[in-house]
Amino acid sequence: MAMLPTPLEAERAAARVMARCDELAAISSTPGQLTRVYLSPEHLRANRLVGNWMRELGMAVWQDGVGNICGRYEGLQPAAPALLLGSHLDTVRNAGRYDGMLGVLTALEIVALLHSRNRRLPQAIEVIGFADEEGTRFGITLLGSKGITGQWAEDWLACTDAEGISVAEAMRDVGLDPAAVSSAERAQDSICAYLELHIEQGPCLEAAGLALGVVTAINGARRLNCTFTGHAGHAGTVPMGQRRDALAAAAEWMVTVERLTMEYDPHVVATVGQIESLPGAVNVIPGQVRLSLDVRGPQDELLDALLAELLAQAQSIGTRRGVGFDSEEFYRIPATACDPQWQQRWHDAVMQVQDNCLMLASGAGHDAIAIAARWPVGMLFVRCEGGISHHPDEAVTAGDVALAIQAYCRVLDITDPLYI
Question: Are 93 and 33 in contact (CB under 8 A)?
Fold first, then answer.
């Protein structure tokens, strides 16, 4: 029996997803906004609500040792590795209602279709609502997904939030045992692959006039603190040709960063997001400028080559202007490639529902980054209005969600012994 929904079934499934996104959006620690952080009362309420929806679909439900909510719809071969579907249930502060939640709720609709037809796949389907992708509370991202892959660092339990509450204390407050974090780890042979549906969080699909796109990779990132050091002087007495203006050097470099990155490759981006000019007086030539650099791209080699060129340009500009330059990298995450076979499956499924398919990299991080360290991952993007995300104006349409559900079902209707 085919597992493909009729158009009416897909529309009704999408309507349920949209309504449930609204229900989850009402679970917030900030009135009039959506804020739901790791191990907060709101996090536990969201887990209970999603757990109830899972039980209605005949799933076995549990909350694991790091706070992920998990549901399992058993397959015909109980010992076969499960196919894991999902995304995250936590949010940034003053968030939109689809980032993360859309992926969990569309996954439930896949199980709902199977359940309504009394059908089982060869392997089990597990749906997971990850506990902390955003890192909003403790400043550590991917806590939920790194819990199931055994990537928790020992010192994370001691990290504190803005109120001085540690991760360990927060876990005990909600009935979790900090000493049992490792119980969340899943064995290599318990899962065969992970699929994540997510809003794009960017404008590419909308610009292409497409509802869906297939993710090829999740961008790697490098973040640096940079400093230009010149010499402060009187703004009225030092001639222009004798100045060592740190801000002028930084400004020239910022324009160079933009130009070189645009020329380098269409898939890489670079951003100077913070800048501080010292001493910061209207009548003093800036003697020092501190600024940030964020560089991202889908291939580490390409990213590192661009970064090296940008830093070389900073040195060159500084030397010509008599200004020193130095930098310190404080954050690095490698690019994560999506599994080629799952890319192809998603591509074929998307082609069947919208006759065209955009393949694109993700500029934002996802739980799939952590999961890819252990299992193959595949991701589907859904268009969001204006590319807006992490904001209350975040929006998707029910029609696009219906198409996404149809593509999701087509992916799972294909059985391949490689993944069973």
Answer: yes
Domain chopping of the chain, boundaries: 7-218+335-419, 220-333
- For 7-218+335-419, which CATH superfamily applies? Zn peptidases (3.40.630.10)
Residues linked to residue 99 through DSSP beta bridges, in sequence order: none
349-388: pLDDT as tens digits: 999 999 999 999 999 999 999 999 999 999 999 999 999 9
Residue 290 backbone phi and psi in degrees, to 5: -110, 135
Judge whether 212 and 357 are in contact, CB under 8 Å: yes
Closest to 34 (Cα-Cα) out of 47, 44, 21: 21
The architecture CATH gives domain 220-333: 2-Layer Sandwich (3.30)
With contact defined as beta carbons under 8 Å apart, do 40 and 161 qualify?
Answer: no
Rounded Cα distance, 88 and 5, in Å: 25
Under DSSP, is residue 319 helix (H, G, I), strand (E, B) or coil?
helix
Q: pTM of the predicted model, to two decimals? A: 0.90
Query: CB pairs under 8 A, 24+ apart, for 159-168?
Result: 161/137, 167/39, 167/138, 167/140
Contact 208, 381 (CB under 8 A): no
Residue-wise pLDDT tens digits, 71-117: 999 999 988 999 999 999 999 999 999 999 999 999 999 999 999 99
- Return the C-alpha torsion angle 110, 124, 63, 21, nearest 10: -10
